[in-house]
Amino acid sequence: MLYPELGDKLVVTIMGACAQELYDRGHKENFFYLQHAMGLASSIGLGLALHLPHEKIVVLDGDGSVLMNLGTLATLARYRPRNLVHVIFDNGSLLSTGGFDSHTTSGITDLAAIARGAGVEHVAAVDSVVAFGEAAIEAFARDDLSVIVAKVAAVGPNHYGMDLQLPENAFRFKRWIAGRKP
Length: 182
Description:
By secondary structure, the protein is an alpha/beta fold. It contains 7 helices and 8 strands, in the order E-H-E-H-E-H-H-E-E-E-H-E-H-E-H. The protein has one domain: 3-Layer(aba) Sandwich (Rossmann fold), CATH 3.40.50.970.
């Protein structure tokens, strides 16, 4: 559902299932797969959003990654980039690193509540495809920081592996951005 909407946006994904599923749908030069840096996709997204205010930035993240860098929600709220949409796929699992339960599995840790508590004004917590689609449409249209926490099943791709290595992806991503700068 989200893939067709990403063609004109800068997209940063965290490692693992999120990156692999996007790559398998069809790589685009505006996709940056932050391999081997769990917890930092939102930080990279924030840097891009602040440096490129004319671009819409989309971060595709996971619950395990956000839990490794909870401070990022406070930092996002502090700087409040108007062009950033942070999507957190909460599968309650560290799926890409062994499938262990994350802290959200028990229902005690609520990432949407943490984002709100950090000061993010536009937070959507969704648990259906329809609700996710509506939240994404609103976030992409909004001229303000948005966080979407989507509860999803702990099911990942049937394989992990990309032909595109991180250094090459970084260079190609940078060239794509440079070609768009006004």
